[in-house]
Structures are given as C-alpha cells and as structure tokens.
Specification:
Elements: E1 33-37, E2 42-46, E3 51-54, E4 57-60, E5 63-69, H1 75-88, E6 93-99, H2 106-111, E7 134-142, E8 145-146, H3 148-155, H4 158-163, E9 170-177, H5 186-189, H6 192-198, E10 201-202, E11 228-230, H7 240-263
Parallel strand pairs: 5-6, 5-7, 7-9, 9-10, 9-11
Antiparallel strand pairs: 1-2, 3-4, 7-8
Helix pairs in contact: 1-7
Length: 264
Amino acid sequence: MGKGGGCVPSKQRAPKGVSDKDPPTPNPERNSTVIISGQSQTQSINTTTTTQVQDGLQFPKKLKIFIVFYSTYGHVEILAKRMKKGVDSIEGVEGFLYRVPETLAPDILEQMRVPPKDNEVPLISVEELVEADGFLFGFPTRYGCMAAQMKAFFDSTGRLWEQQRLAGVPAGFFVSTGTQGGGQETTAWTAITQLAHHGMLYVPIGYTFGAGMFKMDSIRGGSPYGAGVFSGDGTREPSDTELALAEHQGKYMAGIVKRFAKVS
C-alpha cells in the first residue's frame, strides 16, 4: 500500500472499466447464487434469502458472526467465548470463534510467560472473512491502539479492500487493557480506521447495557465503544460484570445483524 499516503496503492491506477464516480457494487458475491446438490436433484438458492433448500427440504439459514481475536494472556479470549454465548442465544444467528496468527517468536513468548493457545480455536484466513454476516474483533491494547498481531492481520486484507468485499458488513470491538487509564476507549476508537477503509459499519454498544454501565461500586472494563476487561499484571480474572457486558454485546450485535439482514 502507499507509503504514508493512505490506502491508495502507489504507482497503480484504478482498474480499467471502473469509474471514479461509480465504484463497484460492494460485496458482489454476497448476492451470488449457490448450488446445493441433493441425492436426486439440484436446487439453486440465493445467499441473501433466509432459507436454504437441500434435498427438497427447506430450513432456516443461520447468519454468521465471526468473533475474531488476539489474546496474549487469555483475557480477550475469555470475553470472546462469553460473547459467543450471547450471539448464540439469538435465534437464527451463530457465533464462530477465530484467532489471528501470532507474530512473536516462541522464545519471546516464553520469556513473556505467555500461556499456550487453545488449539480448539482455529486460525482465520483472510479469504474466510467474506463468509461472515458480521464481526466482533477483540484485542489487547498497545499504547492505546490494537496489538500488532491484530494490526498485521488487518494489513493482510489488502485484496479484500481493493475489491471492497467487506463493505457494508457490521462490526464491533472488544478490548483488554492493563490499567484503568490504559485505553478502554481509545483502543477501540483508533481501530475504527480499519473498518472505515473497508467500508464496514461500526456498531458500538452505546449504553444499551443499562444500569451496569453506570455502577461505580467496582472496577469494570468496557465502554460505549464495546466490552472490555482490565488484565492488570496478567493475573486478574474478568469480573462478573465484565463477562455480562461481553455476553450483552454478543446478543446486541446478533440482533443488529439479524435486523440488517432483513432490510438489505
């Protein structure tokens, strides 16, 4: 991508046939026809419909929310799993957990005393992103911004950006910080640029959590930008309120994606 010049590739012109005034329709393949082969017949279905047909039987098509995260000491992963519980509680929507690749060398991770990753959560590839109807991205902070591992993953999505394959897809954030002033808001806020360049729709939770957003009787991560947790020195466990907020965000995002799918 361009050096210091935004997201326009250097020394390259716009593809032939693409007008500056009429950009390509976002997500062309989201409206494509999928063929499902049955034992005795083949049925065509449209991916934008709410039902699928297979072997002559009609059944609901579940919307997919990808919960994509990077977790160093496990705090973000705990929130992600609780968030999936919230997503799965909404009828017709299912959450899928994915982690992004690690960028640090094994010996560095050992010196940092980073626990081993949960092998049950698969790594996600850039190509898989187009299969989602919505996203929840989670990551710890590094000086008020997302961790380098998550930034490296976003940096690898250039081909999707070029084709605007993720344009119009709802997405939210959840974070982890070591201290109370360590970036619960700015870590999510600075990440919005990634969504903007892809044309994705940022979905904050606002104050939809209700009274839990206003209580001052205990330390709590999270903000109107999204769920959050305070990790401290790495040994602090997420509080019940932080977990409840994560589950709420999962439910909230699932509801948004479900409503969005009905009108799109």
